[in-house]
UniProtKB/TrEMBL annotation:
The active site is at 313 (proton acceptor). GO terms for molecular function: methyltransferase activity. It comes from Alteromonas sediminis. Signal peptide: none annotated. The gene is rlmM. This is 23S rRNA (Cytidine(2498)-2'-O)-methyltransferase RlmM. S-adenosyl-L-methionine binds at residues 195, 228-231, 247, 267, 284. PANTHER family: RIBOSOMAL RNA LARGE SUBUNIT METHYLTRANSFERASE M, RIBOSOMAL RNA METHYLTRANSFERASE FTSJ DOMAIN-CONTAINING PROTEIN. It holds the Pfam family FtsJ. It comes from the Bacteria. Transmembrane segments: none annotated. Keywords: Cytoplasm, Methyltransferase, rRNA processing, S-adenosyl-L-methionine, Transferase. The keyword Cytoplasm applies.
Length: 365
Protein backbone atom coordinates (compact mmCIF):
# COMPACT_ATOMS: atom_id res chain seq x y z
CA UNK A 1 0.00 0.00 0.00
CA UNK A 2 1.26 3.45 -0.86
CA UNK A 3 0.40 6.51 1.13
CA UNK A 4 0.58 10.21 0.29
CA UNK A 5 0.82 13.17 2.60
CA UNK A 6 -0.80 16.38 1.39
CA UNK A 7 -1.00 19.88 2.83
CA UNK A 8 -3.78 22.33 2.08
CA UNK A 9 -5.50 25.39 3.50
CA UNK A 10 -7.23 24.67 6.80
CA UNK A 11 -10.88 23.75 6.15
CA UNK A 12 -10.19 22.48 2.64
CA UNK A 13 -9.35 18.88 3.56
CA UNK A 14 -12.70 17.57 2.25
CA UNK A 15 -12.31 19.41 -1.06
CA UNK A 16 -8.81 18.01 -1.54
CA UNK A 17 -10.05 14.51 -0.66
CA UNK A 18 -12.79 14.70 -3.25
CA UNK A 19 -10.28 15.94 -5.81
CA UNK A 20 -7.97 13.01 -5.06
CA UNK A 21 -10.69 10.35 -5.08
CA UNK A 22 -12.05 11.69 -8.35
CA UNK A 23 -8.61 12.06 -9.99
CA UNK A 24 -7.36 8.61 -8.98
CA UNK A 25 -10.69 6.99 -9.95
CA UNK A 26 -10.12 8.28 -13.50
CA UNK A 27 -6.79 6.40 -13.41
CA UNK A 28 -8.55 3.28 -12.12
CA UNK A 29 -6.82 3.61 -8.76
CA UNK A 30 -8.86 3.31 -5.60
CA UNK A 31 -7.87 5.35 -2.59
CA UNK A 32 -9.16 6.78 0.63
CA UNK A 33 -8.34 9.88 2.66
CA UNK A 34 -7.77 10.26 6.37
CA UNK A 35 -8.07 13.66 8.05
CA UNK A 36 -9.67 15.77 10.73
CA UNK A 37 -11.41 18.92 9.56
CA UNK A 38 -9.30 22.02 10.01
CA UNK A 39 -5.94 20.26 10.44
CA UNK A 40 -4.71 21.48 7.02
CA UNK A 41 -3.19 18.15 6.03
CA UNK A 42 -4.40 14.71 5.07
CA UNK A 43 -3.03 11.34 4.22
CA UNK A 44 -4.31 9.46 1.20
CA UNK A 45 -3.87 5.73 0.83
CA UNK A 46 -3.68 4.17 -2.62
CA UNK A 47 -5.19 0.71 -2.34
CA UNK A 48 -3.14 -2.20 -3.73
CA UNK A 49 -0.60 0.10 -5.34
CA UNK A 50 3.16 -0.27 -4.98
CA UNK A 51 5.27 2.86 -4.54
CA UNK A 52 6.29 2.53 -8.20
CA UNK A 53 2.77 3.72 -9.09
CA UNK A 54 3.95 7.19 -8.11
CA UNK A 55 6.48 7.07 -10.94
CA UNK A 56 3.78 6.71 -13.59
CA UNK A 57 3.32 9.78 -15.80
CA UNK A 58 -0.49 10.06 -15.38
CA UNK A 59 -0.12 9.83 -11.60
CA UNK A 60 2.52 12.56 -11.57
CA UNK A 61 0.38 14.65 -13.89
CA UNK A 62 -2.55 14.30 -11.50
CA UNK A 63 -0.49 15.13 -8.42
CA UNK A 64 1.12 18.07 -10.19
CA UNK A 65 -2.20 19.58 -11.19
CA UNK A 66 -4.13 19.32 -7.92
CA UNK A 67 -6.02 22.54 -7.24
CA UNK A 68 -6.35 22.26 -3.47
CA UNK A 69 -2.95 20.78 -2.53
CA UNK A 70 0.00 22.97 -1.61
CA UNK A 71 2.33 20.08 -0.92
CA UNK A 72 2.42 16.36 -1.63
CA UNK A 73 4.95 13.64 -0.84
CA UNK A 74 5.14 9.91 -0.25
CA UNK A 75 4.77 8.70 3.34
CA UNK A 76 7.41 6.25 4.58
CA UNK A 77 6.39 6.06 8.23
CA UNK A 78 5.72 7.92 11.44
CA UNK A 79 7.43 8.50 14.75
CA UNK A 80 5.75 9.01 18.11
CA UNK A 81 8.08 10.35 20.81
CA UNK A 82 7.87 9.34 24.42
CA UNK A 83 10.76 11.62 25.20
CA UNK A 84 10.92 14.94 23.34
CA UNK A 85 14.42 15.79 24.66
CA UNK A 86 15.95 14.07 21.65
CA UNK A 87 13.81 14.13 18.57
CA UNK A 88 16.69 13.54 16.15
CA UNK A 89 17.80 10.00 17.06
CA UNK A 90 14.43 8.25 16.58
CA UNK A 91 14.06 9.94 13.20
CA UNK A 92 17.56 8.89 12.14
CA UNK A 93 16.73 5.31 13.10
CA UNK A 94 13.46 5.48 11.17
CA UNK A 95 15.14 6.84 8.04
CA UNK A 96 17.93 4.24 8.32
CA UNK A 97 15.34 1.49 8.25
CA UNK A 98 13.53 2.47 5.08
CA UNK A 99 13.66 0.23 2.02
CA UNK A 100 17.21 0.28 0.59
CA UNK A 101 15.98 1.17 -2.92
CA UNK A 102 14.43 4.47 -1.77
CA UNK A 103 16.73 7.43 -2.35
CA UNK A 104 16.19 10.38 -0.04
CA UNK A 105 18.11 12.82 -2.22
CA UNK A 106 20.19 15.60 -0.77
CA UNK A 107 18.20 17.40 1.85
CA UNK A 108 15.50 17.15 4.45
CA UNK A 109 12.60 19.55 4.81
CA UNK A 110 10.82 19.77 8.15
CA UNK A 111 7.28 21.11 7.83
CA UNK A 112 4.17 21.91 9.83
CA UNK A 113 0.57 22.31 8.76
CA UNK A 114 -0.92 25.77 8.17
CA UNK A 115 -3.48 25.33 10.95
CA UNK A 116 -3.76 26.85 14.42
CA UNK A 117 -2.15 23.76 15.96
CA UNK A 118 0.43 23.45 13.19
CA UNK A 119 1.48 27.08 13.32
CA UNK A 120 2.25 26.74 17.02
CA UNK A 121 5.05 24.40 15.95
CA UNK A 122 6.48 26.82 13.39
CA UNK A 123 9.39 28.10 15.45
CA UNK A 124 10.45 24.65 16.65
CA UNK A 125 10.16 23.17 13.15
CA UNK A 126 12.38 25.87 11.62
CA UNK A 127 15.04 25.41 14.29
CA UNK A 128 14.88 21.63 14.19
CA UNK A 129 15.58 21.45 10.45
CA UNK A 130 19.26 22.36 10.84
CA UNK A 131 20.38 19.73 13.41
CA UNK A 132 18.30 17.07 11.65
CA UNK A 133 19.90 17.88 8.29
CA UNK A 134 23.38 17.81 9.84
CA UNK A 135 22.73 14.49 11.58
CA UNK A 136 21.28 12.92 8.43
CA UNK A 137 24.28 14.10 6.39
CA UNK A 138 26.73 12.86 9.02
CA UNK A 139 25.10 9.41 8.85
CA UNK A 140 25.05 9.44 5.05
CA UNK A 141 21.24 9.17 5.01
CA UNK A 142 21.10 12.15 2.67
CA UNK A 143 23.94 13.09 0.34
CA UNK A 144 25.55 16.40 -0.43
CA UNK A 145 23.93 18.31 -3.24
CA UNK A 146 26.18 19.38 -6.07
CA UNK A 147 25.61 22.94 -7.25
CA UNK A 148 25.01 21.70 -10.81
CA UNK A 149 22.16 19.40 -9.75
CA UNK A 150 18.66 20.71 -10.26
CA UNK A 151 16.88 17.87 -8.48
CA UNK A 152 14.47 18.72 -5.68
CA UNK A 153 14.34 15.17 -4.34
CA UNK A 154 14.51 15.33 -0.59
CA UNK A 155 13.32 13.75 2.63
CA UNK A 156 10.29 15.30 4.34
CA UNK A 157 9.15 15.39 7.94
CA UNK A 158 5.78 16.79 9.02
CA UNK A 159 5.35 17.49 12.71
CA UNK A 160 1.65 17.09 13.47
CA UNK A 161 2.17 17.62 17.22
CA UNK A 162 5.26 18.27 19.32
CA UNK A 163 5.61 14.53 19.99
CA UNK A 164 4.54 13.10 16.64
CA UNK A 165 5.77 13.32 13.10
CA UNK A 166 5.23 11.68 9.73
CA UNK A 167 8.24 11.22 7.48
CA UNK A 168 8.64 10.52 3.80
CA UNK A 169 10.22 11.45 0.52
CA UNK A 170 9.40 13.86 -2.26
CA UNK A 171 7.86 12.83 -5.56
CA UNK A 172 9.87 14.42 -8.35
CA UNK A 173 9.05 16.96 -9.70
CA UNK A 174 5.67 17.54 -8.05
CA UNK A 175 6.64 18.01 -4.40
CA UNK A 176 7.20 21.62 -3.43
CA UNK A 177 10.80 22.36 -2.43
CA UNK A 178 9.72 25.01 0.07
CA UNK A 179 8.20 24.30 3.52
CA UNK A 180 4.47 23.62 3.41
CA UNK A 181 4.45 24.45 -0.28
CA UNK A 182 4.03 28.06 0.82
CA UNK A 183 5.75 30.92 -0.91
CA UNK A 184 5.49 34.02 1.23
CA UNK A 185 5.50 37.31 -0.60
CA UNK A 186 6.32 40.71 0.79
CA UNK A 187 3.48 43.19 0.58
CA UNK A 188 4.66 46.03 -1.70
CA UNK A 189 4.48 49.16 0.49
CA UNK A 190 2.60 51.34 -2.02
CA UNK A 191 0.22 48.71 -3.42
CA UNK A 192 -3.45 49.66 -3.06
CA UNK A 193 -4.68 46.40 -1.46
CA UNK A 194 -3.51 43.08 -0.04
CA UNK A 195 -5.27 41.41 -2.98
CA UNK A 196 -2.23 42.40 -4.99
CA UNK A 197 -0.42 39.37 -3.50
CA UNK A 198 -2.90 36.96 -5.10
CA UNK A 199 -1.97 38.11 -8.59
CA UNK A 200 1.73 38.32 -7.76
CA UNK A 201 1.56 34.74 -6.48
CA UNK A 202 -0.17 33.61 -9.68
CA UNK A 203 2.25 35.46 -11.98
CA UNK A 204 5.28 34.11 -10.13
CA UNK A 205 4.12 30.56 -9.57
CA UNK A 206 1.50 29.66 -12.16
CA UNK A 207 3.28 31.13 -15.16
CA UNK A 208 6.55 29.77 -16.50
CA UNK A 209 9.46 32.11 -17.21
CA UNK A 210 8.91 31.97 -21.02
CA UNK A 211 5.21 32.72 -20.45
CA UNK A 212 6.02 35.72 -18.26
CA UNK A 213 8.46 37.01 -20.84
CA UNK A 214 5.95 36.60 -23.67
CA UNK A 215 3.07 38.24 -21.78
CA UNK A 216 4.81 41.17 -20.12
CA UNK A 217 6.50 42.70 -23.13
CA UNK A 218 7.08 46.34 -23.91
CA UNK A 219 3.80 47.92 -24.99
CA UNK A 220 1.60 45.05 -23.85
CA UNK A 221 -1.82 45.98 -22.52
CA UNK A 222 -4.32 44.49 -20.14
CA UNK A 223 -7.86 44.70 -18.84
CA UNK A 224 -8.63 44.33 -15.14
CA UNK A 225 -12.30 43.51 -14.46
CA UNK A 226 -13.33 44.31 -10.88
CA UNK A 227 -10.17 46.38 -10.47
CA UNK A 228 -10.78 48.60 -7.43
CA UNK A 229 -8.87 49.73 -5.47
CA UNK A 230 -6.19 48.52 -7.91
CA UNK A 231 -4.07 45.75 -6.37
CA UNK A 232 -4.13 43.63 -9.53
CA UNK A 233 -3.77 46.65 -11.84
CA UNK A 234 -0.71 47.61 -9.74
CA UNK A 235 0.94 44.25 -10.59
CA UNK A 236 0.37 44.77 -14.31
CA UNK A 237 1.60 48.37 -14.23
CA UNK A 238 4.71 47.25 -12.33
CA UNK A 239 5.42 44.96 -15.29
CA UNK A 240 5.03 47.79 -17.82
CA UNK A 241 1.44 47.18 -18.98
CA UNK A 242 -1.12 49.81 -19.86
CA UNK A 243 -4.32 48.81 -18.12
CA UNK A 244 -8.03 49.40 -18.64
CA UNK A 245 -9.30 49.16 -15.07
CA UNK A 246 -13.02 48.35 -14.95
CA UNK A 247 -15.02 48.86 -11.76
CA UNK A 248 -17.59 51.25 -10.33
CA UNK A 249 -15.34 51.99 -7.35
CA UNK A 250 -12.27 54.20 -7.09
CA UNK A 251 -8.75 53.33 -8.19
CA UNK A 252 -5.90 54.44 -5.91
CA UNK A 253 -4.77 57.93 -6.88
CA UNK A 254 -1.06 57.09 -7.04
CA UNK A 255 -1.84 54.32 -9.53
CA UNK A 256 -3.89 56.68 -11.71
CA UNK A 257 -1.01 59.17 -11.57
CA UNK A 258 1.32 56.67 -13.25
CA UNK A 259 -0.45 57.52 -16.52
CA UNK A 260 -0.59 53.78 -17.26
CA UNK A 261 -4.20 53.27 -16.14
CA UNK A 262 -7.50 54.23 -17.72
CA UNK A 263 -10.46 53.79 -15.39
CA UNK A 264 -13.86 52.71 -16.72
CA UNK A 265 -16.83 52.72 -14.35
CA UNK A 266 -18.59 49.93 -16.22
CA UNK A 267 -20.12 46.53 -15.58
CA UNK A 268 -17.48 43.85 -16.14
CA UNK A 269 -19.93 41.54 -17.87
CA UNK A 270 -20.70 43.93 -20.71
CA UNK A 271 -17.34 45.70 -21.01
CA UNK A 272 -15.39 45.32 -24.25
CA UNK A 273 -11.69 46.17 -24.73
CA UNK A 274 -11.22 49.74 -25.95
CA UNK A 275 -8.91 48.84 -28.84
CA UNK A 276 -10.41 45.50 -29.84
CA UNK A 277 -8.04 43.24 -27.91
CA UNK A 278 -5.49 43.02 -25.13
CA UNK A 279 -2.59 40.78 -24.19
CA UNK A 280 -3.89 39.83 -20.76
CA UNK A 281 -7.30 39.85 -19.11
CA UNK A 282 -7.37 39.65 -15.32
CA UNK A 283 -10.53 39.40 -13.27
CA UNK A 284 -11.12 39.44 -9.52
CA UNK A 285 -14.83 40.32 -9.53
CA UNK A 286 -16.82 38.99 -6.60
CA UNK A 287 -19.41 37.32 -8.78
CA UNK A 288 -20.79 33.82 -9.35
CA UNK A 289 -17.92 31.54 -10.44
CA UNK A 290 -19.86 29.99 -13.34
CA UNK A 291 -20.65 33.44 -14.72
CA UNK A 292 -17.00 34.50 -14.40
CA UNK A 293 -15.76 31.28 -16.06
CA UNK A 294 -18.07 31.74 -19.01
CA UNK A 295 -17.08 35.42 -19.33
CA UNK A 296 -13.40 34.46 -19.42
CA UNK A 297 -14.06 31.79 -22.05
CA UNK A 298 -15.96 34.36 -24.11
CA UNK A 299 -13.05 36.85 -24.09
CA UNK A 300 -10.57 34.16 -25.06
CA UNK A 301 -12.79 32.69 -27.76
CA UNK A 302 -13.58 36.05 -29.33
CA UNK A 303 -9.89 36.94 -29.33
CA UNK A 304 -10.49 39.95 -27.06
CA UNK A 305 -7.56 38.70 -25.00
CA UNK A 306 -4.59 36.41 -25.64
CA UNK A 307 -4.33 35.15 -22.07
CA UNK A 308 -6.35 35.31 -18.84
CA UNK A 309 -5.79 35.11 -15.10
CA UNK A 310 -8.91 35.07 -12.96
CA UNK A 311 -10.23 34.18 -9.56
CA UNK A 312 -13.25 31.99 -8.97
CA UNK A 313 -14.94 32.84 -5.67
CA UNK A 314 -15.97 29.58 -4.08
CA UNK A 315 -19.28 28.70 -2.44
CA UNK A 316 -19.38 27.42 1.16
CA UNK A 317 -20.07 23.84 0.11
CA UNK A 318 -19.21 21.50 -2.77
CA UNK A 319 -16.24 23.61 -3.72
CA UNK A 320 -14.49 20.87 -5.67
CA UNK A 321 -17.65 20.34 -7.77
CA UNK A 322 -17.85 24.05 -8.39
CA UNK A 323 -14.23 24.33 -9.55
CA UNK A 324 -14.55 21.24 -11.77
CA UNK A 325 -17.73 22.56 -13.35
CA UNK A 326 -16.15 25.96 -14.06
CA UNK A 327 -12.96 24.48 -15.53
CA UNK A 328 -15.03 22.10 -17.68
CA UNK A 329 -17.06 25.02 -18.90
CA UNK A 330 -13.89 26.85 -20.00
CA UNK A 331 -12.51 23.66 -21.61
CA UNK A 332 -15.74 23.04 -23.50
CA UNK A 333 -15.89 26.59 -24.80
CA UNK A 334 -12.21 26.71 -25.74
CA UNK A 335 -12.51 23.27 -27.32
CA UNK A 336 -14.59 24.99 -30.01
CA UNK A 337 -11.68 27.30 -30.82
CA UNK A 338 -8.60 26.62 -32.88
CA UNK A 339 -5.87 27.68 -30.51
CA UNK A 340 -3.88 25.54 -28.11
CA UNK A 341 -3.82 26.60 -24.49
CA UNK A 342 -2.56 25.61 -21.06
CA UNK A 343 -4.87 25.97 -18.08
CA UNK A 344 -3.89 25.67 -14.46
CA UNK A 345 -6.01 26.24 -11.36
CA UNK A 346 -4.57 26.62 -7.87
CA UNK A 347 -5.73 27.40 -4.40
CA UNK A 348 -2.78 29.71 -3.75
CA UNK A 349 -1.46 30.60 -0.32
CA UNK A 350 -2.71 34.18 -0.77
CA UNK A 351 -6.15 33.03 -1.95
CA UNK A 352 -8.90 32.77 0.62
CA UNK A 353 -12.17 31.16 -0.39
CA UNK A 354 -11.27 31.33 -4.05
CA UNK A 355 -9.00 29.68 -6.57
CA UNK A 356 -6.83 31.28 -9.23
CA UNK A 357 -7.03 30.11 -12.81
CA UNK A 358 -4.48 30.83 -15.50
CA UNK A 359 -5.20 30.28 -19.20
CA UNK A 360 -2.26 30.82 -21.52
CA UNK A 361 -2.38 30.50 -25.31
CA UNK A 362 0.52 28.16 -25.98
CA UNK A 363 0.89 29.18 -29.65
CA UNK A 364 1.78 32.72 -28.61
CA UNK A 365 4.55 31.76 -26.19
C1 LIG B 1 -12.07 41.68 -4.49
S1 LIG B 1 -12.39 43.24 -5.15
C2 LIG B 1 -11.10 43.44 -6.28
C3 LIG B 1 -9.82 43.78 -5.62
C4 LIG B 1 -8.75 44.11 -6.64
N1 LIG B 1 -8.39 42.95 -7.45
C5 LIG B 1 -7.49 44.61 -5.96
O1 LIG B 1 -6.48 43.90 -6.02
O2 LIG B 1 -7.50 45.69 -5.40
C6 LIG B 1 -13.75 42.93 -6.17
C7 LIG B 1 -14.17 44.12 -7.02
O3 LIG B 1 -15.05 43.63 -8.01
C8 LIG B 1 -15.94 44.66 -8.34
N2 LIG B 1 -17.08 44.07 -9.06
C9 LIG B 1 -17.93 43.10 -8.64
N3 LIG B 1 -18.81 42.85 -9.62
C10 LIG B 1 -18.48 43.64 -10.67
C11 LIG B 1 -19.01 43.80 -11.98
N4 LIG B 1 -20.08 43.11 -12.40
N5 LIG B 1 -18.42 44.70 -12.80
C12 LIG B 1 -17.35 45.41 -12.40
N6 LIG B 1 -16.80 45.28 -11.17
C13 LIG B 1 -17.38 44.42 -10.32
C14 LIG B 1 -16.29 45.27 -6.99
O4 LIG B 1 -16.74 46.59 -7.14
C15 LIG B 1 -14.94 45.19 -6.25
O5 LIG B 1 -14.26 46.41 -6.33
Amino acid sequence: MTQLLLLCRSGYEQDLSEELIHGFALLNIAGYPNFKKGQAWLSFTLVNQPAQALEQKPVKALLGSLVFARQVWQVLGEVSYEDTQDRVTPLLQAFENIEPNVSLGHDVLVEHADSEQGNELARFVKKFNVPLRQAMRAKGIIGRRLKSEKTVKQAHVLFTRSHHCIYGVSINPVSAPNPGGIIRLKFPPNAPSRSTLKLEDAIKHQLTEPERQAIFTEGANGVDLGACPGGWTYQLVQRGMHVEAVDNGLIQEALMNTGMVAHYAHDGFSYQPQYGKVTLLVCDMIEQPDKVASLMAKWLKLGWTDHAIFNLKLPMKQRFDCVSRCLDLVRTELGKSFFRYRMSARHLYHDRDEVTVVVVQSDLI
